[in-house]
Amino acid sequence: MGPFWSFIQFYPEVFLAIICFFGISIFRLIRQSQKSNLPLNWPVVRMLPFLVVNRHCIHDKVVDLLREAGCTFRIFGPWLLDMNFLVTCDPATVNHCLNTHFEKYPKGREFAEMFDILGDGLLVADSDSWEYQRRVATSIFGARAFRSFAISTIARKVGTVLLPYLDHMAKHSSEVELEDVFMRLSLDVSYSMVFAADLDCLSVSSPMPVFGRATKEAEEAMLFRHIVPSRLWKLLRWLNVGTEKKLADAKVVVNQFIYEEIAKRNAHGSNGSQADLLSMYMKVGLDPSMSEQHKTQFLRDTAAGFILAGKDLIAVTLTWFFYMMCKHPNVEARILEELKDLKSSTWPGGFSVFECDELRSAIYLQAALLETLRLFPATPFEEKEAHVDDILPNGTKVTKGTRVIFSLYAMGRIKGIWGKDCMEFRPERWVSKSGRLRHEPSYKFLSFNSGPRSCIGKDLSLSNMKITAASIIHNFKVELVDDHAVMPQSSVILHTQNGMMVRLKRRVGA
Ligand code: HEM
């Protein structure tokens, strides 16, 4: 007989007491969990069950949790796994971490390692390297030549690729997965903007090009890195198996494409008037202390960053925007009315594509896009790491190394921040009495980040989305396929869980 059975035989009352203690504790924890949205702190595994059980609807669960907890809550991961973090949607905390005490909350090495496909680029850099890269990027994004190249690229892609593709689908009465269409279009646009070369991702006859497949696999692997303990994905990376192998393969493809584009430019030079991003970076004259190898690496990291930075964010925002149009036909009708008197250019096939400058007066369209981003922020959460011990405005203590997660998704859904109607889609909230766009502080509307690390592509993205959305709405009626549920995916980017299936009809007279 083993020692366990001997113990039960000799001390049955002690054994019974232990069983009762655990039984009552578990019963109390379960009762408590039924009354509250706050996760239970179990022995050993701590709050991991909350994350696992709610993994398919984690964004909405975090909203409930933060509503009950008063906007800030500390999540404890299993013992020894270093998964503890603080989650918040409190604008004062956001302002503290991203603006007033910005230097205390860098991205951190863990973040850079998770996104190692971006090398040492602007999106992952900290301190001096970030400052230098931000300066160069700001000057390029502010250059008229780059902006006008970027805008004309968007209009060309919408006129020659997107609208003919949608028209083909409309003529064949085919169901279309709209998010996939936007993902392909966005990759096409980003690649052209960075290299002035066409990938042709959105074609009726050809499959997704190899570069597109590689970026998709890389993104899936980076998502996996976010949801498992870092020790696990590092082990898989070391063994080169699973998603880590796919990521390693994807990196080889991405590098091959980018280095080839850089080599072509080095061999043929770019003419002085070329204004794609690579040409602009080559023209700007990088830090003379950099070696040739370092410069090539810098250009590679920059190109990878700009291709990956915004493309999915634009694609998912457009998807949620059209979902809102399907659900709120009155808003769509008002946008159509607003577009009626605006100038557009006509492309082969008779498609109208709106001009960026004309769309400046389309206030309601922009309000509807901002309202979409409020309820469906393309990055549902953001993450920083405390560089030193700190105290947040609400008195919460933060120790060095704590990961702070800002839930942008929750921020748009809290009454105390946006009012009683916070769950309603109401573009009017963005329009002032005088008919202008209402300004909201970025630490309240965090979709493009706040403070020194605000999104550099904000204006360009809004122009892109306005041109694309206006041109689709004017030319086509988009209808959701019956019974197709559209829900957010639990992901680092707010994709839809099962895509968005629609049917299209060409508008009469368009
Ligand atoms: C709907 C579209 C977009 C949204 C919602 C968006 C949102 C954001 C957010 C939230 C950040 C902060 C990320 C962080 O610190 O972790 C960011 C940073 C950044 N975004 Fe965007 N973005 C969009 C499109 C773009 C585009 C199209 C580009 C470039 C072509 C771009 C370039 C950047 C860059 C370079 C940064 C890093 C800035 C820095 O760290 O100093 N973004 N963006």
TrEMBL record:
UniProt superkingdom: Eukaryota
Family to which the UniProt record says this protein belongs: Belongs to the cytochrome P450 family.
A biological process term (GO) from this entry: lipid metabolic process
Annotated organism of origin: Urochloa decumbens
Binding site for heme: 455
The keyword Iron belongs to this UniProt entry's keyword annotation: yes
Cofactors required: heme
Pfam families found in the cross-reference section: p450
Protein name: Cytochrome P450
KW 4Fe-4S (keyword) present: no
Recorded GO MF terms: metal ion binding; monooxygenase activity
Matches recorded under PANTHER family: CYTOCHROME P450
Keywords: Heme, Iron, Membrane, Metal-binding, Monooxygenase, Oxidoreductase, Transmembrane, Transmembrane helix
Transmembrane residue ranges: 6-30, 303-323
